[in-house]
Amino acid sequence: MTISDIAKMAGVSKAAVSRYFNNGYVSAEKSEAIRRVVEETGYRPSLNAQMLRVKKSRLIGVIAPKMASSSISRAVEGILSVLDESEYQMLLSVTQDNEKKELDYFKIFEEQGVDGIIYFGTILTPAHKSFLKNSGVPVVMVGQHMTGVSCVYHDDYHCMKELTKKAINNGRTKPGYIGVRIEDKAVGEERYKGYCDALSEAGLEWAKENYLTADFNIRSGYEKAEEMLEMHPELDALICATDEIAFGAYRYMNDKHIRVPEQIYLSGHGDSDYIRVGGHAIATAHFDYRESGVEAARILLDKINDPGMSSREIKLGYYIVD
Predict the structure, then answer these.
(1) Whole-prediction pTM
(2) What are φ and ψ of residue 61, in 5° steps?
(3) Which of 105, 135, 239, 308 is the most buried (most CB within 10 A)?
(4) Which of 223, 237, 239 has the alpha carbon at shortest distance from 178?
């Protein structure tokens, strides 16, 4: 099946069919005739042929560390909500938190001619930063901030500071913190810094040492909560960098018959479905992850349409849920 066949069956010119598939002007009558033939035949235009004509693949590469994360899945939904209204399709790669695979996918997507890349940033090595600054295709980063690079990120510092102050204002004076790798600037460094600064303002500097690093999952939260409370059984508050970690800690406390929040004030970060299981026992912070995906996709499409566009950096807000 070719464009000539479609044109003959629809009773229109080949030029009209070409304009139809390339979003050019076609009268409503001709457009409907072409649409009917396409629907009846199941015809799909050749992607390679389109690329040769318009010098675009109509493909967006998305690089994510994992999909077993409510924050990333919500952001991907936001990306799709924008792309579904455009002529672009998404190619999703999942790296399982492997920084080398992220670099591999940068290269693969660039070589395969995607029109742009949306990257969920985690640990930014010098190689990552070099690609983001010098990429041959437009790139937008989600979840991390880097000056001079288009990105959509969250206010991790102030959010964690407010969560920690909320625990202190609830009369908790012996807090602990379960974070993630400090190399992750947003979730690791900025959130821990917010926790520490809240302690400093409350005169609880010594509690900065009540700190453990976990992985981004429930099991690790369970194990680190056990380790933390074995080292510091006097704790009356446990602040966690993510909801997954907090829910793991909640399960451990439930197994040990420790009442939350009566005995230990517990907070997470992300306002995920995990927290709903614990009712209102676990405090958390709401980030609009879906909106971060929407904004990232919009910026990327703007950059594709205007290659000379300067970088755009958007910091989204938050609110506390308890």
Answers:
(1) 0.81
(2) -90, 135
(3) 239
(4) 239
